[in-house]
Design a protein that fits this description.
By secondary structure, the chain is of the alpha+beta class. 32% of the residues lie in helices and 28% in strands.
């Protein structure tokens, strides 16, 4: 809304400044200086030829401003994003630009991001014909997780003479959910490898029970061949065993974070996203649990549902403690108040520096009353 005390001229000027911005280029400064010199010489000498040259120079300035403004008019832009986006992970999107003018094309357009929309680099459109729609692939990369409701794109052009660069900002309203980053950070891959090692040890300790003897198939291992049954039937026979259900991994994220530890919480959220994505890629069963949700993947909830929840989660100052649901699971606890919590990244480095190393090479536990950093006891089952 406009201010009551503003005149009609002030309102018009403010709207024009808000919508279209202009920057004079070095060529424009040189041209303006030349125009001033010709004007001074024309008035001092009263030479009609200089007045004609001055008129041509001023006309070129007016035409340049009018044409560049007309080229930015009547444009409709939309940014088509992929369905799944992760923070700090480049993704390919598409820009759709439509020229709604009936007869006039737009020349030499430059499109770039002007906000947190994540548009990387700029796109050049040499010409956009009238009543035509063009699409170009672009790279987007969002700096953080969360929900983005508005996006800002900027058009700019120096057409036709390059004296000025006119810019106009376009607001795009939409809801975009950006997942936490799934890229590994210091300590994440080590934590995952230790977890995979414990899963392998659990599988080997369970053993297998004999189920039946059946004919050999192309995908069967030679180690499964039963040579006695093969000799009896004159055909390759293999032993089939009962498949044991793989151990359940439980990822527990404690939302009780004190003031001043928001950076730790963001790192813990990204650690959960990395573990969730890595376990889902390996088709491993896991449970993700906090004070606000309890998801089992992949049987009950897809991995994207968990990532979407992590994209919007916020700390809760007063939350009850978390406990694993299964007694024989492998818990991974991310907490600032649980002695079973794992350390990762910077927290793990701080714990190593304060607590030193034990004889077995593992970091020594620190006193929870002296420090809020969790001890590095990755994936250890609670007593």
């Amino acid at each position: 809304m406009s201010r009551p005390e503003e005149s009609w001229w002030q309102r018009l000027r403010r709207r024009l400044q808000d919508q279209v911005k202009q920057r004079v280029t070095p060529l424009g400064f040189a041209y303006t200086g030349l125009t001033i010199l010709v004007g001074v010489a024309a008035f001092l000498s009263a030479n009609n030829l200089l007045f004609l040259v001055l008129a041509a120079l001023l006309a070129a300035l007016l035409i340049s401003g009018f044409v560049s403004r007309l080229g930015l008019a009547g444009l409709q832009v939309d940014l088509l994003l992929p369905e799944h986006l992760s923070a700090r992970v480049p993704a390919t999107a598409r820009v759709r630009l439509e020229n709604r003018k009936g007869l006039l094309p737009s020349f030499s357009l430059r499109l770039e991001g002007a906000g947190e929309g994540g548009l990387v680099g700029a796109i050049l459109f040499p010409v956009v014909p009238p009543r035509r729609t063009l699409e170009e692939p672009v790279t987007v990369c969002f700096p953080r997780r969360g929900q983005f409701r508005e996006d800002s794109l900027r058009f700019s052009t120096r057409f036709p003479f390059g004296f000025t660069e006119r810019r106009v900002d376009v607001e795009i309203e939409r809801d975009v959910i950006v997942y936490p980053s799934i890229l590994p950070r210091p300590g994440y891959e080590e934590l995952l490898s230790r977890l995979e090692g414990q899963l392998t040890a659990r599988r080997q300790s369970r053993g297998e029970d004999f189920y039946r003897i059946r004919p050999y198939e192309a995908h069967d291992s030679v180690r499964r061949v039963d040579w006695k049954a093969t000799a009896h039937t004159q055909q390759l026979q293999v032993r089939e065993y009962v498949r044991q259900e793989q151990p359940l991994v439980e990822i527990l994220l404690d939302l009780a974070v004190p003031d001043g530890r928001e950076a730790w919480f963001e790192e813990a959220v990204e650690c959960c996203a990395f573990l969730v994505w890595s376990l889902a890629e390996q088709n491993l069963r896991f449970r993700f649990k906090t004070q606000g949700c309890n998801f089992v993947c992949p049987h009950q909830t897809p991995v994207y549902g968990i990532l979407r929840w992590l994209a919007l989660v916020e700390p809760r100052r007063h939350s009850p403690p978390l406990e694993p649901d299964a007694d024989d699971s492998l818990p991974v606890v991310l907490s600032l108040r649980d002695p079973r919590a794992v350390s990762f990244g910077r927290a793990g480095a701080d714990a190593d520096h304060r607590g030193g190393k034990r004889a077995d090479g593992n970091p020594r536990r620190t006193d929870s009353s002296r420090s809020q950093d969790p001890p590095p006891d990755a994936g250890r089952k609670s007593g």
